[in-house]
Amino acid sequence: MQGYQYTDVKVEVKGQIGIIKFNRPKSLNSFGGNLLVDTLHAVKELDENPETVFTVLTGEGRFFSAGADVRGSRPLDDDHSELTKTQLKILHLERFTPMMELMKALIDHQKVFVLAMNGPGVGGGAAWFQGIADIILASENAYFQVPFSSLALVPEAGSATNLARHMGIHRANDFLMFGRKLTAQEMESWGLVNRLFPVEGFHQSVIEFLEAQLETNDGISMIEAKRLQNLPLRSERILAVYNATDALAERLASGAPAARFKAKKAELEAKSKSRL
């Protein structure tokens, strides 16, 4: 059987370390093209690799991920006036299938899941993976920001529940409700980020750090520690993803996000014309 051909991520194995690298740098690694399906395939591939202990998710270029690819996919611009709210909700739920499958695969992933924030994360790039990663490493120039409320959306992919477990409910509310921009240093002080590394040579620093852990610690023991810690959290995380997706589809079906996107687009176009 022919192997899967990756187009929007790079997959590499270095000894006991599996690496998944978002590879849409010109689009700031936004979730367009084949990126989500590619990532899902890579997560499953590395889950079955008998040699690896760590699975690292990172990005190519200056951003980790800018989240949704607004330019590449414009469902909010489509005319759905002939559809009922119920039909609209079903339409949006169908669009979220790759995201839900990816989140489930990561929640059930057996290897130690290391998120390596090589740069800023925005929207889904700041919220999807952070609450379920086992270890988060970040470059010193990384920042996190989510515009969910400003766009009449809701915290995606279970982030409202999963992030609150790491940073506390009040801090999670400040971040998710108000769209507060947080530096990697602030996230480290809030307990979300484990360690910071210099921007220069970030990816190599991550590999060297993980290799040092493998020299000191038994790989199976680390995997077992992850399993035991995450075992009672699985149902909560899966339910959080489902609840968030249902709420997001409801908001999109209401039409409020489309109105916000339209107003924001007009504002940006006006600013662009004023510069001419």
Automatic annotation (TrEMBL):
GO annotation terms (biological process): fatty acid beta-oxidation
GO cellular component: peroxisomal matrix
Gene Ontology molecular function terms on file: isomerase activity
Source superkingdom: Eukaryota
Isomerase keyword on record: yes
Pfam families reported for this sequence: ECH_1
Localization terms from the record: Peroxisome
InterPro entries assigned to the protein according to its UniProt record, in alphabetical order: ClpP/crotonase-like_dom_sf, ECH/Chromodomain_protein, Enoyl-CoA_hydra/iso
This protein's pathway: Lipid metabolism; fatty acid beta-oxidation
Keywords: Isomerase, Peroxisome
Family: Belongs to the enoyl-CoA hydratase/isomerase family.
Name the record gives this protein: Enoyl-CoA hydratase
Species name: Penicillium oxalicum (strain 114-2 / CGMCC 5302)
